[in-house]
């Protein structure tokens, strides 16, 4: 069995270069409508320490051109770009990365309950975990992201305008073969099929 490394090689692009698949942004603000009634709308805003662009490269390239005013073909328009948040390993172990959202929802994270346990860590660091991807990013010989985790159960989407306007917050772009690895793992996780437990009688 050949184990794939979980270190991703990356490059740093000039700010004027367009947004693309594999771009890693810092301090990413994500907003969504949590509830609404006839008089008001409740908007929740989260800030991810890092997030990576995982939409298909051709779709991202088109929307970057669209935002730049270089094209306007309606058939290729996408309202938002798919991203995976990147969490610090120490926070995700016991679900502390969800503290902000749980506080907003008036829920409590069970103290000490495992979220990313020792077995998860062991399997993920061999790059064999279905759900979690242990992440380390190197640019040349310098590590710029370390001890980090992508949880493929957590996806977000942002308009291209936001990413286009925040290119100064792009810290790097993961090289093609490494982002392909991440996107393929994400696709496999999303395509999983939950089979019924044969011990539980059907209703």
Characterise this structure:
- The protein is α+β, with helices and mostly antiparallel strands and 203 residues long.
- Helices cover 25% and strands 33% of the residues.
- The chain contains six helices and eight strands; from the N terminus they run βββαβαααβββαβα.
- The chain has helices spanning 57-68, 89-92, 99-104, 118-124, 160-165, 176-190; strands spanning 7-11, 23-36, 41-53, 81-88, 132-139, 142-151, 156-158, 170-174.
- Strands 1-5-6-4-3-2-8 form a seven-stranded mixed beta barrel.
- A hairpin with a 2-residue loop joins strand 5 and strand 6 (142-151).
- It is globular.
- The model is unreliable at 1-5 (pLDDT under 50).
State the strand order across the main sheet: 1-5-6-4-3-2-8
**SSE arrangement, N to C:** EEEHEHHHEEEHEH
Q: Spans of 5+ residues with little confidence (pLDDT < 50)?
A: 1-5
Number of DSSP-assigned strands: 8
Mean pLDDT: 91
* Oligomeric state of the chains present here: single chain
Give the overall shape, derived from the CA principal axes. Answer: globular
Share of β-strand residues: 25-35%
Helix content bin: 10-25%
Distance between the termini: 42 Å
How many distinct helices? Answer: 6
How many whole angstroms does the radius of gyration measure?
19 Å
Structure class: alpha+beta
The main sheet comes to: 7 strands, mixed, barrel
Highlighted features:
7-stranded mixed barrel; globular; disordered N terminus; 8 strands; 203 residues; alpha+beta
Could you provide a short overview of the structure?
With 203 residues, this protein is of the alpha+beta class. The chain contains 6 helices and 8 strands.
